[in-house]
Design brief:
Largest sheet: 8 strands, mixed
Radius of gyration: 27 Å
Number of strands: 19
Strand order of the largest sheet: 1-2-3-4-9-10-6-7
Distance between the termini: 72 Å
Number of domains: 3
Low-confidence stretches: 31-38
Helix content: 40-55%
Shape: globular
Length: about 550
């Protein structure tokens, strides 16, 4: 029997094929995979706890029986926490959802599915009004969510909800219209609210054979993806290991592979020179890669030798779902040629870089915890003392929003004083991460010092990444680690430097059981941050030398 869970439609179809292939033994599950979902479980517990307090709610977190859910539905519960849904055998569906919210206007019990996810699900769009919102304490009180749209790249949860909606239809429990609820996490300490999405609203851009691209609804997307995976599972289930036809899907390296237990099965089946393996930065998506495969291009070597202009007439009509499809292909081909030549970082212009310099300069880098809280502002000051001096502003503890603002004030006060004493001061950062966080805290607190710091950023801050992006291309992108090591020949002290890794160190610095471990983690974070700002300085000096040499 083919029954697919809510994640199948949003997951790699090769995973579905492997799971239903009787000739392919299932790999052991990696316990570390569970850690990737811990943040989500904390958020989910908070949301479900709030919903359980709604009058008329039935909490089934301690019961997994279908009978208990049937009884809650029959009783007309206002909210059902962690329901168990009956299998939809005809539709090849199994699974459930985090909660069901009743259709208050229906003459008999009918429900809408709800999921809690640990990320923001809406963004600004002036004039938008398709979404609805309600507080967790009153999920039936709906208001128009003005000037906000759903973040399309979070469509995965909508496919899960569409799966639950189809199961509710099969059971006879679905509301009159296909609305579904998502409770995201604002990551600012504020109480999350419910965002209601009409699953029939067409706002997801997808490939169209006739028009290049077409806007489709979450339900349309789900029905297509689910139907394809049913076909994939059915094909896999028919395999015997003897004279089987080629699989209907082939492995392609995608983000999901990083935590997929089936990766150890898929990887040996891939060419070592496979495009999806070797071009990791700004990678082509699955449809783009499948289109190249249909044109006879599967490896880096093949793309490096290909005539892109000759490919475009057949390639572009099949990749109209992506903006800048031609530019993306040309960028991938450029990276392929660099890989074929063994070049990791290459200059693509003859014009001077023209990076502005000053008598007193600050290189700036911040560190944030996994919830987005800024706990460290690191500054490297050049031009005041004989040697560049590192100045960290840090809090190693559990920070509130007020603590975060207080730390930003401490840094900003120091920086503004330095700017007053040195009128030509320039502050360098790599990408806009620091400015975004500074602006966010200024808007949140409306503190005059932070507003002045934002104004200073507009006048004196220099985004080094913009200068690099305009003049260079990198096989592995143009992140600071890539440019500093491969261009400026800089080396970090830590063997495994990285922003995500620093978040792990911060957790140890705050919550480790023994003092020695906490102190070691704090020192490691500070050294990593200091190396980041020294790397920024190294890149600046390298760019300046390039201009001097060219002159």
């Amino acid at each position: 029997m083919i029954l697919l869970d809510p994640y199948a439609a949003r997951s790699c179809p090769v995973k579905t094929f492997n799971a239903f292939d009787p000739t392919e033994p299932a790999p052991p599950m990696d316990e570390s995979l569970r850690e990737a979902f811990q943040g989500g479980s904390d958020h989910r517990d908070l949301v479900l706890g709030a919903l359980a307090a709604v009058p008329g709610a039935v909490d089934l977190r301690t019961s997994t029986s279908l009978e208990a859910t049937r009884a809650a539905v029959a009783a007309g519960a206002s909210v059902i926490i962690r329901p168990t849904l009956p299998d939809d055998v005809e539709g090849h569906r199994k699974g459930s959802t985090d909660a069901l919210v009743s259709d208050a206007g229906a003459p008999e019990p009918r429900y809408y599915p709800l999921k809690a996810k640990p990320y923001r699900v809406v963004e600004k769009q002036l004039g938008a009004g398709e979404l609805r919102t309600s507080p967790l304490s009153a999920p039936h009180t709906l208001h128009i969510l003005h000037d906000r749209r759903y973040r399309v790249f979070r469509e995965g949860v909508l496919l899960e909800l569409a799966h639950a909606w189809r199961m509710l239809q099969s059971a006879g429990w679905a509301g009159d219209e296909p609305w579904a609820a998502v409770v995201g996490d604002n990551h600012d300490g504020s109480q999350p609210s419910i965002t209601w999405v009409n699953l029939q609203h067409k706002f997801i851009r997808t490939y169209s054979r006739t028009a290049g691209h077409k806007m489709r609804s979450p339900l349309e997307r789900y029905d297509h993806e689910h139907g394809f995976r049913v076909h994939v599972a059915t094909s896999a289930a028919e395999r015997t290991g003897v004279d089987d036809p080629p699989p209907v899907v082939r492995p392609i390296r995608v983000k999901e592979c990083e935590w997929c237990a089936w990766w150890q099965v898929c990887r040996p089946k891939m060419d070592d020179d496979d495009l999806s393996l070797r071009i990791a930065k700004a990678p082509l998506d699955v449809r783009e890669l499948q289109t190249l495969l249909s044109l006879g291009i599967k490896t880096v070597a093949q793309l490096a030798e290909a005539d892109v202009d000759a490919l475009l007439p057949e390639y572009l009509p099949l990749t109209g779902h992506r903006d800048r499809s031609e530019a993306r292909l040309r960028q991938a081909a450029l990276r392929a040629r660099m890989l074929a030549r063994g070049v990791e970082l290459e200059r693509v212009t003859d014009d001077p870089v023209g990076l502005p310099r000053a008598s007193v300069e600050v290189d700036l880098d911040i560190e944030t915890s996994d919830d987005g809280t800024t706990y460290l502002w690191g500054a490297l000051v050049s031009g005041v003392d004989p040697e560049p001096t590192y100045r960290p502003f840090a809090r190693f503890g559990r920070m509130t929003g007020a603590d975060e603002v207080e730390l930003a004030l401490e840094f900003s006060t120091w920086l503004l004083d330095l700017a007053d004493r040195h009128p030509d001061l320039r502050v360098y950062h790599y990408s806009d991460y620091e400015v975004v966080h500074l602006r966010r805290m200024a808007e949140r607190s409306d503190h005059p010092v932070l507003r002045r710091a934002v104004q200073l950023a507009g006048e004196r801050f220099v985004d080094l990444y913009g200068y690099v992006r305009d003049h260079f291309v990198g096989v592995d992108g143009l992140g600071l680690k890539v440019v500093a090591t491969r261009g400026a020949d800089f080396r970090w002290r830590d063997e495994d430097p990285g922003g995500l890794q620093s978040q792990v160190w911060f957790k140890d610095a705050v919550g480790a059981a023994d003092v020695t471990t906490r102190e070691c983690a704090r020192r490691r974070v500070l050294e990593y941050n200091e190396d980041d700002v020294r790397a920024t300085l190294a890149v600046r000096e390298w760019l300046t030398r390039l201009d001097a040499t060219a002159g």
